[in-house]
Amino acid sequence: MLVQKIKNHVRDGILKLRHWVLVKVYHMDISPSAMISLGANLDTANPRGVHIGDETYVASGASIMTHDGCRLLHADTHIGRRCFIGAGSRVLPGVTLGDHTIVGADAVVTRSYPIGGVILAGNPARVIREHVRTNKYGVIIK
């Protein structure tokens, strides 16, 4: 029990340190209440283009991209409030996801959904459900 508490405390400290580095060193626009998994990949080629809203969770293996070397593109990527970005998913440069958006695992989001309140899945990502309301970190309100 004590060992688990120590592990959780250390992990929380590492997450806070990573958040500080992303915001202060890379100058990403990430809300203090957002949670970014240690395994998530945020684009450092154009770090000022990353914008993540309040109470949003980015899961392990998810990538938030702000540049595309093939097209010589640098574009801001915006993720709204209370969103969930699933494990292994990709959000491509220039995409805007509105509040209460859920991106399924391994989805590839190629276009914007600024209205929000949707669940996206697939490659390329498509809307599989609309009018969704989420709580903190993208948990669906039933």
Count of DSSP H/I helices: 1
Into which percentage range does the β-strand content fall? Answer: 25-35%
Number of strands: 16
Report the mean per-residue pLDDT as an integer: 95
Give the overall silhouette: globular
- N-to-C SSE string, H for helix and E for strand: HEEEEEEEEEEEEEEEE
Main-sheet strand order equals 2-5-10-13-15-16
Radius of gyration: 15 Å
| Poorly predicted sequence stretches spanning 5 or more consecutive residues | none
Distance between the termini: 33 Å
- Helical/strand content category: alpha/beta
How would a crystallographer describe the biggest sheet? Answer: 6 strands, mixed
Describe this structure in words.
This protein is α/β, with parallel strands linked by helices and 142 residues long. It is 17% helix and 26% strand. It contains one helix and 16 strands. The strands form four sheets. It has a six-stranded mixed β-sheet with strand order 2-5-10-13-15-16, with no helix packed on it. It has a four-stranded parallel β-sheet with strand order 1-4-9-12, with helices on one face. A four-stranded parallel β-sheet has the order 3-6-11-14, with no helix packed on it. The longest helix is centred in the first third of the chain and has 24 residues. 35% of the residues are buried.
